[in-house]
Write a structure and sequence with these properties.
157 residues, mainly beta, Porin, 9-stranded antiparallel beta sheet, 3-stranded antiparallel beta sheet, elongated
Length: 157
């Protein structure tokens, strides 16, 4: 899944990174509906802001760690066939989420201002999903909590 990361270096060691991506996710049921497995799909937009510490700003290899927050917007929710076979036609709506984010990564200089980036991010995403079917509304707690591995090319200005 393509994503966009933009980092602004406040000092040689401290950076602020903004992360943007839209990604599809399956929503898995818990509780009485857990036997159904994935009950819905949704698109997630989890813009994330992290504060980073870069350990070796003057070397060719620049490892870093970061922590921050995200606000996840959920949209384009759809019920899976397994859910509708059990409950009948179902309208799915997921609430937005605020959560913690953590990352670890490394930049490796290529030449000039160009570098290769590898990072791993954990994003805490929890939401209530409402399932409306045949006059009944059920609320399901959903934890998505993705681990995102990124590999990219960057340029320092």
């Amino acid at each position: 899944m393509p994503k966009l990361d933009i980092t602004y270096m406040i000092t040689e060691n401290i950076g602020v990174e903004s992360i943007a991506v839209v990604s599809p996710h399956d929503l898995e049921a818990t509780g009485s509906l857990s036997a159904l497995g994935d009950v819905a799909t949704a698109l997630l937009l989890p813009p994330t802001l992290t504060l980073q510490y870069h350990f070796l700003p003057n070397g060719q290899i620049h490892p870093y760690i970061g922590a921050g927050t995200n606000y996840t917007v959920m949209f384009a929710e759809n019920a899976e066939r397994s859910l509708e076979n059990t409950l009948g036609p179902t309208d799915v709506s997921a609430g937005n989420s605020v959560g913690f984010a953590a990352q670890i990564g490394v930049d490796v200089d290529i030449n000039g201002g160009w570098f290769v980036n590898l990072d791993v991010k954990y994003i805490d995403i929890s939401t209530d999903v409402k399932l409306k079917s045949i006059g009944t509304t059920r609320t399901v707690d959903v934890d998505i909590n993705p681990v995102i591995v990124g590999l990219g090319i960057g340029y320092r200005f």
